[in-house]
Automatic annotation (TrEMBL):
This is Lon proteolytic domain-containing protein. Keywords: Membrane, Transmembrane, Transmembrane helix. The keyword Transmembrane helix applies. One of its GO terms (molecular function) is ATP binding. Signal peptide: none annotated. PANTHER family: ATP DEPENDENT LON PROTEASE FAMILY MEMBER (PTHR10046). Pfam families: Lon_C. Residues 285-372 form the Lon proteolytic domain. GO terms for biological process: protein catabolic process; proteolysis. The chain crosses the membrane at residues 44-65.
């Protein structure tokens, strides 16, 4: 009995030992630990994948990024008609008592624009848009701070762009009439003076320019055309006398002119910022949507006005897009988004694109769409000559902007 009891005890001990080693199911316990550990690792892996997916979706769709994306915008044929209060009127309307049937012209002069994402008036840029824009040659990504002040509101931005547009149209009217030798008058006042100017501390804000004297010869200033004509023929560093009306008093300021900041530009400057109150011989209206702002349509406005007043002298059968700011003396200035504007113009059928001198040089590394030729322009007279050359088909001497 003692042996049986010993055997039973031995058997039970062995069974318990095997239970500890193999488990109740008879499966090795070490394997059970491995299975449980694997399941925990699998759960962590799925959790990490879930977190990564959520983060990716958040960054791609929800999280705003401090960038601005420039894209091709709509274009407008300024030689066409538009509807205003149920009436058909030219987009650029010259009310000089003559008939100007611009809509019957087969060719086109296109105003070009840039659409923007991420500015004060538009939705913030998301991650998927940045990725899309990066691989699209027609789009451009810029840091927000490079385009807008940090604290500017949408309303403030719209107001600034509207002011730019108003000034652009006034400058275009002045430049076009000057180029066509049609007289007009304007009151020119000093808005500010550069510290680099010899007139700093001498010329005052709200001074009204009356005349400029050099070598004993006084020339009256009745318009911006007079002012620029005088300065364009004056060498930098020339001693002059500037007559201004300050309040009710007439003052004479002795000062030297300074060199223009633009390379290659002739003449000199006063080094002052001016405001001009124009008095044109007849109304010249620009009927475009108020949503379009900025200064970059000045050149195409001026060319359209010249073409309309001259009875279609500049445009034939071709579709030509133009960009560039315009000064009252006919100088073409640089703009932003030139590549995007070329893509927009090509999309709307333009075959030629007139670009400011500065922007023309920017195109050498740009991938442009096929079927449109960018041409360099520097001033209104030369831009008009480019249009005449395109109209006549004599384009072999046009200066094409270098590009890919």
């Amino acid at each position: 009995m003692g042996q049986v009891s010993n055997y039973s005890t031995s058997f039970d001990s062995k069974h318990l030992t095997e239970g500890k080693v193999f488990g109740s199911s008879g499966v090795p316990f070490a394997h059970q630990v491995s299975v449980k550990t694997g399941r925990r690792k699998s759960r962590w892996a799925w959790l990490l994948i879930f977190v990564a997916v959520v983060a990716a979706v958040y960054l791609a769709v929800i999280h705003p990024f401090p960038y601005v994306i420039e894209m091709p915008g709509p274009t407008i044929n300024l030689l066409a008609n538009t509807q205003i209060d149920g009436k058909t009127r030219p987009i650029v309307e010259v009310s000089d008592g003559k008939n100007h049937p611009t809509s019957q012209v087969p060719g086109q002069l296109r105003l070009v624009t840039v659409s923007m994402r991420g500015g004060p008036s538009t939705a913030a840029v998301r991650g998927w848009e940045l990725i899309s824009a990066y691989f699209d040659p027609s789009q451009n990504i810029l840091p927000y701070s490079q385009v807008f002040p940090e604290d500017v509101s949408a309303e403030e931005e719209r107001k600034v762009q509207k002011q730019f547009m108003t000034s652009s149209q006034d400058n275009a009217r002045a430049a076009a009439l000057t180029a066509l030798e049609i007289p007009f008058s304007s009151k020119i006042t000093i808005a500010g003076v550069s510290e680099k100017s010899d007139g700093y501390g001498k010329l005052k804000e709200n001074d009204v320019l009356v005349a400029i004297s050099h070598n004993g010869v006084e020339q009256q200033i009745t318009s911006t055309a007079d002012l620029y004509r005088i300065l364009d023929s004056t060498e930098p560093g020339t001693q002059i006398k500037v007559s201004v009306k300050r309040g009710s008093q007439l003052e004479t300021i002795e000062m030297k002119t300074i060199a223009p900041g633009e390379e290659g530009r002739k003449g000199s400057l006063l080094g002052a910022f001016i405001n001009a109150d124009y008095h044109f011989p007849y109304p010249i209206s620009v009927n475009i949507p108020e949503s379009i702002g900025g200064p970059s349509a000045g050149t195409v406005f001026a060319l359209t006005m010249m073409n309309t007043i001259s009875g279609g002298e500049l445009i034939g059968n071709d579709s030509v897009a133009v960009t560039g700011t315009m000064s009252p003396n006919g100088m073409v200035g640089p703009i932003g988004g030139v590549v995007q504007k070329i893509y927009g113009a090509q999309h709307d059928g333009a075959k030629w694109f007139l670009a400011p001198d500065y922007n023309c040089d920017q195109l050498k590394d740009a991938k442009l769409p096929e079927g449109i030729t960018p041409v360099r322009i520097t001033n209104l007279g030369q831009a008009a000559d480019v249009l005449r050359a395109i109209k006549s088909g004599q384009t072999d001497k046009l200066e094409v902007c270098p590009h890919k």
